[in-house]
Structure formats: C-alpha cells, structure tokens
Amino acid sequence: EDKNFDEVVKLRGPVIYQNLYLYLMQQQVMSRPLSTMDKNCRVYRIAMVHVGHPACGMNAAARGFVGVCVSKGYEAVFIYDSWKGLINDKVKRVEWNNVHHWTSAGGSFIGTSWETAVEVGMLQIARKLDEHNISGLIIVGGFEAFQSAYEIHQKRKIYPELCIPVNVIPACIANNVPGVSLSLGCDTSINQICKACDELKRSAFSIQKCVTVVEVGGENCGFLATLSAIASGADHAFIKEEEFTI
C-alpha cells in the first residue's frame, strides 16, 4: 500500500539490490547523451588490463567498466595486449559506443597474456603508468592477475608511480583466484564440461563393462573437477586437494 519499492528491493538481499543498481546505471548510460553525465567530479583516468588465460566474461567486464566510468565522469582507458602492450604504448581511451555490443562475446577483445607484471618489467610498467597519467588500475584475469596485483603492491616502496588504487576482477575458468568464491567464466566452463559428459554417456551406455574417464582443466585447483562431477553424476572425482592412488 505504501509503495515503498526501494525497501522491498533491499529486503531481497544485497545481491539483488546491487544487480538492480548496475542495471539502472547501464540504462542511464545508454539513454542519456554523454554531455549530460556527471562532469562535476575530478576527471580520473582509469585503466583496465587483461592478464592470464582468456575467459568468458572478460569482455562483459570491460563493457561494465566503461559504463561505470562514463556514468561517473571518469576517463576509461584500455591497455591492449596486457603488460607488454602497456610498455609498447598500446593505451587507448574508449567510450560507451566502442563497447556496448560486447555483452555476449567470449575471450578478450583487448588481448591478454600469461606474463605477470614482474616478468615483463616492473620499472617499465611504473614509468608507463605515470607517463599515461593512470589514476587507477583494474586487472581482469586469473591467478596471474592476482599475482600481478600482489607484485605491484610489493613494489610500491621502490616505485612511487605504483601507489594508485589497484583492483582485481577474477576471470578464470579454473576458479583458482585466492580470496574469491567464484570467477567470471567458471560457470560457463562447467556447463561445457557437463555437455561433453552427456555426449560421452550416450556412447558409454552402449558398451558393457566400460569405465569412462574425463580429464578437465583447473591446474592445481579441483573446483572444475568437483562441480562438474556432481553436476554430471560422476561416480568419483580425483582432485589435487586429495591424495589418490590411481
């Protein structure tokens, strides 16, 4: 009767509230001209770089990043081809019109690499971040992204240019990023594994006394093996976290 819709949304939990906020923000970006966005704040130059294996959701994260920057009046910048791209000055400012169609595309349109920040050269990275006037850094990727952020944090006393806000958006099919429960792309990979297992079951049912062994990725993390085994109805899952004698 009171039509207190905001309170109803909050009662549904923080996840629903946050998702609704992000949706409304994206609608605001798409429906309003750029000239009417918030221009009263300081113009921060925020950069995004992809590090590690490509994963589903990387492009969607890049799209959302640009949407947030545009709505807040910040300047969104992409670093193409990961850390080596930064050293080679592959840094480009982007607008909403450049990324609005990136929602469902997999992989990484801006390029990614497995090399961490230290492997490429921390001194060069620090100099280039300062040269391009980067106010903040968003790193999207798997364990290599987490490791790069940690390396940047460790080198701040040596290189003052690295004393900027650094955030990591976990995007990894193996879901092996420390400190997070889910990564972008891991749900898609589990779905693909289950589809493959369903096809294998059809062949296995026609053969008696047959054991089908399915090997999945994940490196030293048993997330993919465990969840896909449960979802596909496997008899057992052998993972790195537990000793097995096969």
Describe the structure in your own words.
This protein is α/β, with parallel strands linked by helices. The protein folds into 3 domains: 1-31; 37-170, Rossmann fold, CATH 3.40.50; 186-232, no CATH class. Helices cover 43% and strands 11% of the residues. It has 10 helices and 5 strands, in the order ααβαβαβαααβαβαα. The protein has helices at 5-11, 14-31, 58-72, 82-87, 96-99, 117-120, 122-131, 143-154, 186-205, 223-232; strands at residues 45-51, 75-79, 91-93, 136-141, 166-170. It has a 5-stranded mixed beta sheet with strand order 3-2-1-4-5, with helices on both faces. α8 links the parallel β4 (136-141) and β5 (166-170). α2 (14-31) packs across α3 (58-72) and α9 (186-205) crosses α10. The longest helix is centred in the C-terminal third of the chain and has 20 residues, at 186-205. The radius of gyration is 22 Å and the shape is globular. Residues 45-246 form the Phosphofructokinase domain. This is 6-phosphofructokinase. It is an enzyme of class 2 (transferase). Its EC number is 2.7.1.11. It comes from Arion vulgaris.
